[in-house]
Prior knowledge:
homodimer; alpha/beta; Spore Coat Polysaccharide Biosynthesis Protein SpsA, Chain A; Rossmann fold; 2 domains; six-stranded parallel sheet; 14 strands
Amino acid sequence: MEDNHINMQSHSCDPDRPAHPGIFPTREAGKSDHQPGGSSVDFPVSVVLPAGGTGERTGLQTPKQFCSFLGRPLISYTIQAFERVSWIQSIVVVVAKENMDLMTDIVQRFQHKKVRAVPGGSTRHRSICNGVRALGDAEEERPKVVIIHDAVRPFVDEDLLYKIAMAAEEQGCSESDFEFGTECLHLALQYCGTTAKLIQGPPTLWKVTYKRDLAAAESIIKETLSRSACVITGGSEQAVTLADALQKAVGALDMELDVIPDLMGENAGYLLKEWNFIQVSVNRSCLSEVEAVLKDLEAANRALLHPLVVIWVHLSGSDELSVSGRGVEPAAIMDLASAAKLRNILLYGIQLRQTKDTERWERSVLRVAEITSALIRERSPALVGQLLQA
Amino acid sequence: MEDNHINMQSHSCDPDRPAHPGIFPTREAGKSDHQPGGSSVDFPVSVVLPAGGTGERTGLQTPKQFCSFLGRPLISYTIQAFERVSWIQSIVVVVAKENMDLMTDIVQRFQHKKVRAVPGGSTRHRSICNGVRALGDAEEERPKVVIIHDAVRPFVDEDLLYKIAMAAEEQGCSESDFEFGTECLHLALQYCGTTAKLIQGPPTLWKVTYKRDLAAAESIIKETLSRSACVITGGSEQAVTLADALQKAVGALDMELDVIPDLMGENAGYLLKEWNFIQVSVNRSCLSEVEAVLKDLEAANRALLHPLVVIWVHLSGSDELSVSGRGVEPAAIMDLASAAKLRNILLYGIQLRQTKDTERWERSVLRVAEITSALIRERSPALVGQLLQA
Lengths: 390, 390
């Protein structure tokens, strides 16, 4: 085999700003429109993910690559980070024999397309070798570059992969390119007959090792999903006024809002790139609007990889609440939310009352902003269907 | 000076089970009743915390020792970990000159008693030296052992400190005790004329270095505060039945509940050791019960160092809600919660309806358990005062 191996490790001490685990805006599922410098890799590249670890150091029963955040195991995040790169043709995950069924189930459940699982060997090195050999067996075009990447380093970004693939292809990776000879690379050379190069990765490539790293990884993913939201106003003047006020208030909480009248035409693009939606409703029988948003999101098949958040903000007339107590039957939104939760969409409700008392109105808007920000950041499944008061 | 220096560093690779940052049950504020093996240290011990870092590697504007979790800066957690140890007589925090005011404010705000801030020198080594010298100036008894500890390693437990203090006192710490000579230790010896010993710490002593470590530290603290809660039933049969069902349901979510009728007599001890309280109320005009709990907690001055969670669970008769819409006026609990929040007590409400339909009842109880667990784990200030439906 003449594959070029790239083995990425993180040694650097720079700030670890969170990478974007598969949340680049995509126009088509599985394809990325994010090509660094507009260029593309035009030779076949494959990836081997050794994932045979037993998770001893986390102190948990589940090996860390199979630990879940936001309902999805770590290994699936790592796979997704590679799968969304259009020019990566195939990914081989090497797992312990006893985890083959689990891995196959994960691949099916999260609809990973470019992935095959193969059983590992008795050592990490043999496992990597098995993975590389499996690439040779496949029907697809033989890769020119093979990237070997720790399965428990989920935060890989496309720019780095692009640079690595280009460097590997251009330089050819002779043996003299070894920077830090690791056992792993030498064994790859010795037993697989391939050449290898060790390249320094950024600190975002850090390895999930301890239990505290699982918490850190979850927090990075949550932060990444919580930077922005899309507010749908329906176009009414009252709703637009509220949305504009919310936009300012949420800005102070480090979140950006895009305000749009509906999800039609060009705005349909938000369905494919946004993880959080806020539907503002002004009239009373208005769960229909939020039902429509849920339907659109389901049609776009967007909630597979990350839970989506939909917040229904109900602005009632100043006398409406006092007449009926709540305005909207809590059971209705709870039922809708319970159904949506099964499809990985988290629906919450917030009610506020129209008032001409400016101070009171501003306090309400600020509370909507704070509640919205907290719901989006925490993505708590236990609180879906609640109708919160602002 | 003849002080014995202990410099703790974490090099180990064991699982990092969270330590307990100052949440040992205490009978008197500032004193710990947790004496390993029942023994105590009977010689003067002091601590120097170098905290002059500028936080470059976190990528944040605020130096990491001043970053806040749950409303309190990291340095205060580290101070607290030492302060709660009865036999530690004084703590000197060494900070950059420009942060002296900030540090003084932190010491006052969180009522740290044994702490003095001194300005650092031009290097870390000079700063440590300043800290040690400041101990010599003080009026209190001259320490026999000085522990030098990184301010950004908040998770120190008393057992380790006890062992270290005893080892330092018994062995005398001659120069030959150096295990890993670090520049820091040699400089301490050279310029301060003291002897030093480097002791390996557990991985829980890990250093908060990157932004992701801040998230990990917050998650460890939240987990530590969320292991148990105290349910106050008032003694009524319906409330006790609900509390027992909750106890089982919450057990499946890795949380333990103690069920008590009230906070009188021996049960008053819970006010001093528990971070989470659930008040079950069966009648309608029942905010008075939760008001009493809030008063007791304020009197015990418990919410200074960690936010307390109080959840009011309102069990209404099967026909009560349908008559009045909600049973309890939402504005009343919101007002109570807003006032409590100013004192670092987070109050939430959960309503459920009595029913003879067993399946429905069990679903409601499970939902109360899930909501309770989520509220306690997340400790979200934005959601206080909400009346959630189970």
